[in-house]
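This section describes the prediction task in plain terms. A model, or a person checking by hand, is given the sequence of a single protein chain and must write out its three-dimensional structure as a string of tokens. No templates, partner chains or ligands are provided. The sample shown here is typical of the held-out split.
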Amino acid sequence: MGAALTREQAANRIMVALDYPDAGAAEALIGRLDGVPCWMKVGMQLFYAAGPGFVAGLKERGYRVFLDVKMHDIPNTVKGGANSVTRLGVDLFNVHAAGGVGMMAAAMEGVEAALSGASGPERPTVIAVTQLTSTSRAVLNDEIGIAGTVEQAVLRYAKLAKQAGLDGVVASPQEVVAVKTECGASFVTVTPGIRPAGSETNDQSRIMTPREALAQGTDYIVIGRPITAAADPRQAIETIIEEMI
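The expected answer:
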């Protein structure tokens, strides 16, 4: 896993999934985590309910924001979406690798266009979703219609993302070593499916503990319900940080 992390470094690698139906519920959680320098991940449910203004508010308070809306559409539409979220000032966002190299490259064109102004925003990190951590091999083969193992599918998509000029991928912690081997150590991996020791697995099928995920070499870990559904979210994240260092 390399050198031991400080508490701040560990917190900097946690992305808290704000999977809430409205801004009020999310704000209650954010208030309880005040002072912890973690990322905030805004997914579809919250973004559709609270809108860009909520993201802007997080940025004003100094949080780094992962906008998890998984863009997947025709290239021109994704280009426009990428342009908009770049101008919004998010630090990281994602697209679906299943959209193909052309679509992913179009997302990068949208980013570059948004950065072209003299006082443009900072460049966000752009990553591709490979396979959701809820996807088992049976689902991959029998329902999605892709042959082979989940890891093979993840690696194929990761290489396409790199070819398209993206910075990294979302992948389960089980695929991190293979992705880094194929695409390079600097290719960013963001890993959901993180469950602290003793937690419920819920609907995730490819999971690891935070410490195990870091040992695989991942860059960021996404944690939702073990923090957001905890009786004491602040204590929950502090316990996770202790596990990581």
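For orientation: The beta strands are 14-17, 39-43, 65-71, 92-96, 125-129, 168-170, 188-191, 220-223.
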